[in-house]
Specification:
Elements: H1 9-27, H2 50-67, H3 69-77, H4 83-101, H5 105-114, E1 131-132, E2 159-165, H6 167-182, E3 186-192, H7 206-217, E4 221-225, H8 245-262, E5 268-272, H9 280-296, E6 303-306, E7 322-325, E8 328-331, H10 342-358
Parallel strand pairs: 1-7, 2-3, 2-4, 4-5, 5-6
Antiparallel strand pairs: 7-8
Helix pairs in contact: 3-4, 6-10, 7-8, 8-9
Length: about 375
C-alpha cells in the first residue's frame, strides 16, 4: 500500500506556495489603472526677458526726449552757469533742433490738450481771448533814415541778406529766408547757432563767426536776433552776476562791438529784440537785454533796433501764445513758452520784411 508522507518536501512546497499566493492577494494593493490620455500641451506663455523690457523702456524714453527736447533745452538755458549746464546744452541742442524742424514739439501741445492740460492756452492766466494782431500797415517801428539802403534789386543783381541768431533767431530765420527768397530778388542766408549769445564766447564766439561770415557772404543787410541765452552770469574769475550794473556795462560793450563789426563793411543791420516770455523772471530779463540793445543802436550809423515785444505779445507787452490774424487764431509760441512757432515766425518775418522795404527803402517787388 502506498501512502504520502505529509512531510515530503514536494507536498510541503505546494502548500507553502498556495499560502504565499493567498497572502499576496491580501497585503498587496491592486495596481491602479493607467491615467487617461491628455491632449498634448500647448505652447507655454511667452515671458518677456529683461532685455526686451529694457529695450522698450529705452525706446519710450528716447521718443519722449525728442518730443520734449525744446522744453528741456529751455530749462538748461536758464540754469546756473557751470559744467552741468554746458553738458546739458551740448546734448539737448541737436535734439531740440530736430524736434522743432520736424514739428515734433507740437505733439506735446496736442497731448496736453487730450489730457486736459491747457497751461499754454488763452484763458489760463494769459488773457481770456487770443490777442488780435494789428494790420501790417499799423505795426510800426521808429523810422531811422540813417539806415536807408535805397536799392532796387533784380534776379541778376539780388539783395544779399544774412540772418544771424540763437535758437529764436533760427525760428525767425528759417521763415524769413524763405520769404525773402520767394521775392526772386534776394539771396538770403541763415547762420543760426542754438544755445548761443554774447555772454559766453567760451561756448560760442559770435564775433569770430561774424568775421568769417562777412567776407564769405558780403551781405548788404544783416538781421540779428539773439539774447535768449544771455540772462546768465558772466564767467570769471571773478564771475559777474546777471542783473548788476557791472554786468550791464560788460554786455553793453559786447553789443556795441558786435554792431560795429556787423556794419563795418557797409551792411545795414536790423537787430530784432526778444519777445515776452511765459516765465515772468525770464521775461523781465529779456526786457533788460532789449533795453541795452535798443539804447546801443542809435550810436551806430547803420543799425536799427526792431522790437518784437508787441508783435508777438499783447498790446501791453504781455506773453500770449495765440494771436488772431485776419480772423484766424494763430499759435505763435511753442509749448515751452520761449520759442517761436512757424506761425509766430511768419508774423515776425512779415514785420522784418516790411522794415526792409520801408526803412531801408528796398524794392522787393523785382
Amino acid at each position: 500500500m502506498s501512502w504520502e508522507d505529509p512531510f515530503d518536501d514536494r507536498s510541503r512546497g505546494g502548500v507553502l506556495e498556495a499560502v504565499r499566493r493567498r497572502w499576496d492577494r491580501i497585503v498587496t494593493p491592486a495596481k491602479p489603472p493607467p491615467p487617461p490620455e491628455l491632449p498634448p500641451p500647448g505652447p507655454e506663455p511667452r515671458r518677456s526677458g529683461w532685455t526686451r523690457v529694457l529695450g522698450v523702456s529705452l525706446a519710450a524714453f528716447a521718443i519722449w526726449l525728442v518730443l520734449d527736447a525744446p522744453t528741456l533745452q529751455h530749462n538748461a538755458q536758464v540754469s546756473p552757469v557751470g559744467a552741468r549746464r554746458t553738458v546739458a546744452l551740448d546734448l539737448l541742442g541737436p535734439l531740440a533742433t530736430v524736434s522743432r524742424d520736424l514739428g515734433l514739439s507740437h505733439v506735446v501741445s496736442i497731448a496736453d490738450g487730450i489730457i486736459g492740460r491747457h497751461g499754454n492756452r488763452p484763458g489760463n492766466g494769459l488773457g481770456t481771448t487770443p490777442v488780435t494782431v494789428k494790420p501790417r500797415s499799423t505795426v510800426t517801428t521808429t523810422p531811422v533814415p540813417k539806415v536807408v539802403l535805397n536799392r532796387q534789386p533784380t534776379a541778376k543783381d539780388p539783395l544779399r541778406v544774412l540772418v544771424l541768431g540763437d535758437s529764436l533767431g533760427i525760428d525767425l530765420g528759417g521763415v524769413l529766408v524763405d520769404d525773402l527768397r520767394a521775392t526772386g530778388v534776394v539771396q538770403a542766408t541763415l547762420d543760426g547757432q542754438v544755445s548761443t549769445g554774447l555772454t559766453r564766447p567760451d561756448y560760442f564766439n559770435w564775433p569770430a563767426e561774424l568775421s568769417v561770415d562777412l567776407p564769405r557772404y558780403t551781405p548788404q543787410v544783416i538781421v540779428i536776433m539773439m539774447g535768449a541765452n544771455d540772462a546768465q552770469d558772466l564767467p570769471g574769475p571773478p564771475d559777474v552776476p546777471f542783473g548788476t550794473p557791472a554786468w550791464d556795462a560788460v554786455y553793453r560793450g559786447r553789443v556795441n562791438a558786435f554792431m560795429t563789426e556787423a556794419s563795418s563793411r557797409g551792411a545795414r543791420v536790423i537787430w530784432v529784440g526778444m519777445p515776452p516770455m511765459q516765465d515772468p523772471t525770464l521775461s523781465a530779463a529779456m526786457q533788460r537785454i532789449d533795453e541795452i540793445v535798443r539804447r546801443a543802436a542809435p550810436k551806430h550809423r547803420w543799425v536799427e533796433f526792431l522790437s518784437s515785444w508787441t508783435v508777438l505779445g499783447t498790446p501791453t507787452g504781455q506773453f500770449t501764445p495765440y494771436l488772431v490774424e485776419a480772423g484766424q487764431e494763430v499759435n505763435v509760441r511753442e509749448p515751452d513758452g520761449t520759442h517761436i512757432t512757424p506761425g509766430g515766425a511768419q508774423v515776425l518775418s512779415s514785420v522784418v520784411e516790411q522794415a526792409i522795404r520801408t526803412h531801408l527803402r528796398v524794392d522787393l517787388n523785382g
